[in-house]
Amino acid sequence: MAPLQIIGSGWGRTGTAAMREALITLGYDVHHMIVIMTDPTADAEVFIEASQGKDVDWNRAFGKFNAAVDWPSSTFYKQLMEVYPDAKVIHTTRDPEKWYSSVMNTIMPATEMMNKPGMPAHVVNGQRMAKEVIWDGEIKGEKDKDTMVRKFKEHDEEVRNYVPADRLLWFETGVDGWDKLCAFLGKDVPSTPWPHVNKTEDFKARTSNFRDGVPLHDMTPVNK
């Protein structure tokens, strides 16, 4: 087991894919929703069990990882902070209304596509987990703009109040970059530009392959 050194508390579509790439560049092995959707061996069920209040072995999800960002890990940031007391917390965030627009133009349409017949079993399991843990769980099925923007702001405020300041990096996507991240982690700043991945147009182009019969696991690789 590789204990988590980094826990991401930011929701999906807050720059978590770029943060994942940045952390990989810095040498971390990073769990992200894309792992669940691309790796047939990934355990999505553990997140459902945790959402039901069951005691779970988090090694089932994070056994080969030492960092976790994005949904569904961010849903359980409080529990993970207790299990991994030495882990630092990175909170990615962005303008709430832009976040809502991004979600409605990416994750929501992709969710519908994942329900079509013939999808790989691990994608179906990941979609079921996302529905139970995130959309019907954390979001509670309320997807109108005012409610989701309010919930986003409430989550930001909760994290700011809950996580000790010396353990938290508040990361504004589109504003912050290598200097802030590396100072927090005690790493040298890479010479490469900050990654810009999984933008709305990229997400749409990738997930459009669902309609063309391209298996999801052929589209975006997990950590190697």
From TrEMBL:
InterPro entries: P-loop_NTPase (IPR027417), Sulfotransfer_4 (IPR040632). It comes from Umbelopsis vinacea. It comes from the Eukaryota. This is Sulfotransferase family protein. Pfam families: Sulfotransfer_4.
